[in-house]
Recover the amino acids of this structure.
DNA sequence: ACCTGAACACCGTTCAAGT
DNA sequence: ACCTGAACACCGTTCAAGT
């Protein structure tokens, strides 16, 4: 019991150190450096997280949970056009806020069991949104949940890519994406 | 003279080794490893290329030159709608073919003087295409050459991101982008 | 002039040794 | 059980020493 508490505290220290590094702009998140920041041995990092990817996933968990919540809310919006817009906007905003989440979504896979459930839930909610949107004729019939994942990752990349003047472009790119996925008719 | 020939041969060997690695799927392009493959000392790599970025740029030069050619051709197409489509399609296709070019375009900057000229030329051609397209009302008025750079980088990222099933998505994503940048009216 | 490769500072990952 | 940190294999980059 006291061992468990200890372990949990150590784990929290590592996550805090990692988060601090991310916020300081270090997207590399070196295991050695995080361990040092957290005041633990490197081995302890690996005991808790299988590797850098697992660490990223653990960091992304909270954002991811919030995102799933928003996706579910989007799926039950009365106006599904607004729902779709909300889903895409939320996915994009979260990615820009949390680089760890962006990494997980871009990889499209998940090592950590906890996140697997969240990813499925997100894709499931996206499927519902798309099904309703398609029925109402507000989205192209060939757009899949995975397309939304890829495309939002792409827009994030576009916003971030090259220079910092990109933040201002976010709303325009969002609009371009939203208009681009409208039905062809 | 003979020294120059020697140097040129060495340089060619390094570029060939780098290209071979890229084609083998190693996007990291470690300087040490490339040097070894090319049978030269690491120092020689650094004498010819300031760093990894410079090496990437040298590798991208040929593709980039071709791309500029296509962009200029697009700028003088009789039907500027087709010209715009051609510009975007070419930029995207080249990026998917040549990871080095994709890297340079995504960074949006250039260290190597040769490439600087090509980047300016590309952006200039894009500006012409957009000016004509805007005049004809086939594109949103607020789309800039840099937006096209960012957005094509983003679409490439979307195509590549997570899993290999993405190649099939290319045409659809292109269509989504093309439709998304149409005038709002 | 140009090239070589040892050397230094890192980073990922493992594992014997400690508590 | 859990943690530590030395150790190994890498990679970027520099620079004294060779030709």
């Amino acid at each position: 019991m006291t061992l468990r508490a200890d372990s949990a505290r150590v784990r929290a220290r590592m996550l805090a150190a990692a988060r601090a590094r991310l916020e300081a702009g270090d997207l590399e998140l070196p295991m050695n450096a995080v361990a040092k920041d957290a005041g633990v041995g490197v081995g302890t990092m690996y005991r808790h997280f299988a590797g850098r990817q697992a660490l990223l996933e653990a960091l992304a968990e909270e954002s991811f949970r919030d995102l799933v919540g928003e996706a579910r809310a989007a799926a039950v919006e009365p106006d599904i056009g607004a729902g779709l817009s909300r889903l895409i906007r939320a996915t994009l905003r979260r990615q820009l806020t949390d680089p760890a989440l962006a990494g997980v979504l871009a990889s499209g896979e998940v090592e950590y069991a906890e996140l697997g459930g969240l990813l499925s839930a997100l894709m499931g909610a996206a499927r519902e949104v798309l099904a309703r949107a398609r029925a109402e004729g507000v989205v192209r019939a060939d757009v899949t949940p995975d397309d939304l994942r890829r495309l939002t990752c792409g827009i994030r990349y576009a916003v971030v890519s090259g220079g910092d003047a990109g933040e201002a472009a976010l709303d325009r790119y969002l609009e371009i994406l939203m208009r681009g996925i409208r039905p062809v008719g």
Notes: Chain A touches chain B at residues 106-109, 140, 142, 147, 149-151, 153-159, 161-163, 166, 169, 172-173, 175-182, 184 (CB under 8 Å). Residues 3, 6-7, 10, 40-44, 47 of chain A lie near DNA strand D (CB under 10 Å from a C1'). Residues 52-75 of chain A form the longest helix (24 residues).
